[in-house]
Design goal:
Four Helix Bundle (Hemerythrin (Met), subunit A); about 300 residues; 14 helices; mainly alpha
């Protein structure tokens, strides 16, 4: 695999060298909008999957879950940047984050986090119910405490266990529609759980040198590329299996089943391509497709359930 360092700009400044005035774009950057976009999509899709055409998803509920879900995820990401400032400054792709460059101070970032959490809890509890708000808070705590503080710097299992934080949005959306959690909600949780290593380790292959520079024990760094690809293949198979469970249990119909089969065939195709040839291009294709896969899988389940 080619080194990813050549395609990334190396950090040329330190926080002490900069004295900038923060704008709204800097605060938006703290929330990691690109990362949140897929999580937010699964949240809103799960809202409709949970409603299943039995309960109306009002415009107010949709907007509240969308904004509230974004805010709580943004708060979690901001806390992550505060904690990981020392790591981010050593990684080329993160060296220009607002806290690293001191564009936004740690104090202001903490205040910003508090505002996001308060507003998110109000919106989710008022429109989606107490359970939805509590699950959102649980997701934040899991991401900050379990992943960022306990696992990220200590073990390559960080993304397997800590990645469960990214599964909570599916529960949040479902709970906002049903005010309870049915078995299918936990299946959605499991789909994201087993999908996450496939998605993230494909990215980790691309950023192996960056993680090594920051002494973060991501799988490609501590076990090598071949072992990483083997693990990706294992989790791909588990993802395929769990994604078909809703159809087996008759929680979904033909529309979802056909869509899931097609999407899984393509997921297997890109994974096998990486197994055969471990190179940057193959890892990038799998990484990009994995995002399309999860979004379409949830979308087709929502369409199927609401039909």
């Amino acid at each position: 695999m080619k080194s990813s360092d050549s395609s990334l700009a190396s950090p040329a400044t330190t926080p002490a060298a900069l004295n900038l005035t923060a704008g709204w774009r800097d605060y938006l950057a703290l929330t990691k909008p690109r990362v949140i976009s897929l999580l937010l999509f699964t949240t809103l899709a799960s809202l409709y999957i949970g409603a299943a055409g039995k309960h109306p998803v009002t415009f107010a509920l949709f907007v509240a879950v969308a904004i509230g879900g974004y805010m709580i995820a943004g708060a979690a990401n901001t806390i992550n940047m505060i904690i990981d400032q020392d790591i981010d400054i050593r990684m080329a792709r993160t060296a220009q984050r607002p806290i690293v460059t001191s564009t936004v101070s740690r104090r202001d970032a903490i205040v910003f986090t508090g505002v996001l959490m308060v507003l998110s809890n109000y919106l989710l509890q008022h429109y989606g119910g107490t359970l939805s708000a509590l699950l959102a808070d649980a997701g934040l705590l899991f991401y900050v405490v379990i992943y960022t503080l306990l696992l990220k710097r200590r073990t390559w299992h960080n993304i397997v266990i800590g990645g469960a934080a990214g599964c909570f949005p599916a529960l949040v959306g479902w709970a906002a529609a049903e005010h309870s959690l049915a078995p299918l909600a936990w299946i959605l949780f499991a789909i994201v759980f087993f999908w996450t290593p496939v998605h993230f380790w494909a990215l980790a292959l691309l950023l192996k040198d960056d993680y090594a520079a920051a002494n973060i024990p991501m799988l490609p760094v501590v076990r090598g590329e071949r072992q990483t690809v083997i693990q990706i293949a294992v989790y791909m198979v588990l993802t395929v299996i769990i994604s078909l469970v809703p159809a087996v249990l008759h929680d979904t119909g033909v529309t979802y089943l056909v869509s899931a089969v097609i999407l899984n065939v393509l997921l297997a195709y890109y994974t096998v391509g990486l197994v055969k040839v471990i190179e940057r291009k193959q890892a990038l294709w799998l990484f990009k497709y994995s995002m399309i896969y999860l979004a379409l899988l949830f979308l087709m389940m929502a369409i199927d359930r609401c039909h």
